[in-house]
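Sequence in, structure out.
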Amino acid sequence: MKLVSFFLAASTALSTAPALAQEVSFSSGPATTVIEGLIDCGQRSRTSAVGEIISEDGKRRTVPAATNYLTAPHAPDLYNTCANIKPRSLDDVDIDALTTFDAGGTEVFTAYIFADNYFELYVNGNLVAVDSVPFTPFNSSVVKFTADRPLTLAIMGVDWEENLALGSEDNRGVRYHPGDAGFVMQLQDASGETVAITDTDWRAQTFYVAPLQDRDCLKQQGQTRDSSACSTASTNDGDAFSAAYWDVPSNWMATDFDDSTWPNALAFTNDTVGVNNKPAYTNFTELFDAPDADASFIWSSNLVLDNLVLLRRTID
């Protein structure tokens, strides 16, 4: 795995304002590439490039997101072909040998995560670990950490892109194909009891939508940012498409951040997300699809166009 020698700032468009309705801003056309690729995993890996673009309100936007990938600890791998870690089941994983991250407490928890494509995990306001593979091939992660209850779980979810600021990739025979997203997690305590799963009790807010073939399709009312009426059609001519942005609050991961006005997350099936042919998921269905704790894939209301989504849940 080869890292580029660039530094990516944690955010370029942050706000300290409370969770009130925000104005949307737009950009048109492709971004300028500032990082050619965060990792190189060979021919089966899509290029995890990072770009910048100035939106129409004059702000510099990082696409697909301003992340902590180059500076934060990477989550240990549950399954990762880039690192040649390919267990056939959870029985082949030595959980006891994993590094335990400190999130400011004494009780030990273990999070099992599959993200399409990238996640950052915060617990009680502390950044614990980030996804080791920003784009593809698809991987899964296992993160042990210490914390005290109640647990405020905060996730940055990013659907990565090849066409920067145009929310799409060269796929399925077309140059501009809007890929889908999704995030699933099961959290256990030291006894193996499930204390949290991803479901519709989580809050989910959208901060970056692309590609937009028609800006008028995007509707906003209060904290609801609805792109469901926007086209998800693939095309070979997308250079003029738009993207929509909202500023990310600087304290969105904090325990005292008010997410009460954020919409609830929506749940999506395995078939919709398309994981039934991905061993990073299917080798661990006893976790993610446990009969007594079946975790759902969650996201905002648009699995395809909403590319930067923040997720929150507090567990007592």
